[in-house]
């Protein structure tokens, strides 16, 4: 994509209450709609009317029961939810998180191909490894597999899924009633994959999907995660909270992409953007203040324990934040571990101070202000080599999502940074990515 035609990509994270852990308690949150499919369908239609590129649903495969006291944990299974959303939308992309650590390639290839057919070519797979130990206990394991093993498995997992998606040629489906030929068997192939982690014969039991292959998305930022992204991903969701860190990550990913023999334009980097928008600065600050009074620091501490693999219940909230080992030595989420280590070593925070200052955004870029201010920040990152767009995460889903769509998106469009209309029928076409 040439510089003249370069435009911002906007992905919207679809959540039941928002990223702030106290948002479910806010007066504007309609708790009776948190598990109502019609609520998510309405949000999706609103996002499509604003011309958002894609919706994204995160996922987890375990729950800490005591955390349920403090608020809802995740929600619908992503592919099921997005299939329902696909029936009431026409253009917006649909990206679901599915772990390579606790699934099988054949099932994943089939379900995403199905979503691509159901949606008319709008599916994307956020390919992640799982770094939460309690999840392993739900799948017959006594401990979480090592970090290196998880990424080795993820690489082979992706290779198998791509082979399965490519096991049908574009024109393999004939459906000729006169000759009685349904498919040209010369254009459908068993894949005969034999590897370290998987043995898969194939072929996929579904014809090639509308956009050739569903979009591949990756969200890991460890060294192994960035290598995996450079080899396979087309969108990269990432977490940085300073422009300098964003630029360094962007440069690193693009260099790895070139080393992998891929075009730099074939990989788009989308940092997470946690935001609260108000029509005035005072209104935005008031919204932030209201949310801060509703958060549960106990719930935040549980989440921090899961992501870092450290039991923080043995500490007092006012203890100095414990010294963290080198990220390469931990078996949890290494990129998150690295981010927290950098913050706490620089600022010498207590546990409480870290949670209060950073945790509502989980360390991501967090902006509170007017539409113009938020657009200023986004434009700076976009034009300064730190982002190709953003994965937008409203702190408050009820009202906050609509505020972003109604206030910030039009400001970006007025500046010529974001288009007014969709340009194609598939997710790939709308993002300017090649059909595969």
From TrEMBL:
Question: Record's Pfam families?
Answer: Bac_luciferase (PF00296)
Q: Does the keyword Oxidoreductase apply?
A: yes
Q: Which controlled-vocabulary keywords does the entry list?
A: Flavoprotein, FMN, Monooxygenase, Oxidoreductase
Question: Where is the Luciferase-like domain positioned along the sequence?
Answer: 24-386
**Record InterPro entries:** Diverse_substr_monoxygenases (IPR051260), Luciferase-like_dom (IPR011251), Luciferase-like_sf (IPR036661), NTA_MOA (IPR016215)
State the family named in the UniProt similarity comment for this chain. Belongs to the NtaA/SnaA/DszA monooxygenase family.
Protein species of origin: Paenibacillus sp. SYP-B3998
Give binding positions for FMN.
59, 97, 147, 151, 222
Instruction: Report what the protein is called.
Output: LLM class flavin-dependent oxidoreductase
The Swiss-Prot or TrEMBL record annotates one GO molecular function as: monooxygenase activity
UniProt KW Protein transport keyword = no
